[in-house]
Amino acid sequence: MKKASFEDLTRAHDPAVIRKRLQQAPKPQNISDAVLGGIDGCVTTFAVVSAAVGAGFPPSVALILGFANLIADGFSMAVSTYESNKAKQEYAQSLRDMEEEHIDIIPEGEREEIRQIFANKGFKDDVLEKIVSIICEDRKLWVDTMLIEEHGIHHQADPNPFGAAWATFVAFILIGTMPLLPFLATSLPMNQQFAISTVLAAIMFFLIGMLKSLLFDQPYIFSGIRTLLNGGTAAALAFFTGYLLREVFGVAGI
Which Pfam families does this UniProt record tie to the protein (predicted)? Predict the structure, then answer.
């Protein structure tokens, strides 16, 4: 996150502002899903292109394989993201239901868990008992405390499985399409198409890394180069794999 000035921090920590902020539910964010989708989309399509070029296939094959992988893998990633976020929701809800049931069946046992949790934090005697009493008077607070302290389920914005899946899919398709665009220019020789595709993929990798760093106030040049190197390594492995297999099996192109 971008660092705030001292004046901004002072205003943000006014008691009225704090009260209003804490009353609002945390907002879910899909930045990480979009970043992951964009990087994977570019890696997927450019790796397919690199493998096709390395194997000596014509541009039409690279284009067909690239778009086929783009759509299939983009959909697969979106589904995986949806299921992952849905599983997190269901897991948290199952733990909440379990704690609710335990409070109904054996409330004193659950009170003792609260007591020992805060005793381990250094509270004792009357202060400890006061904490236990306050928490256990509010059923929702009681359950929330058990989720956080016993199960490590922190109160965050509820994940939106559909939103996360959509962000992943859109970023995957938009960024993943870029390395394929030069192969639509059929008038260009394949070496030029591949060169332009390489440049576009490199730009995409660098921009994704830079954007991620700007959002979280990290050194953007370093992050851009790191993402570029990671994506470039994947593409290089695909290219040389295609080239080696072509040599091993004596493929002369289609």
Answer: VIT1
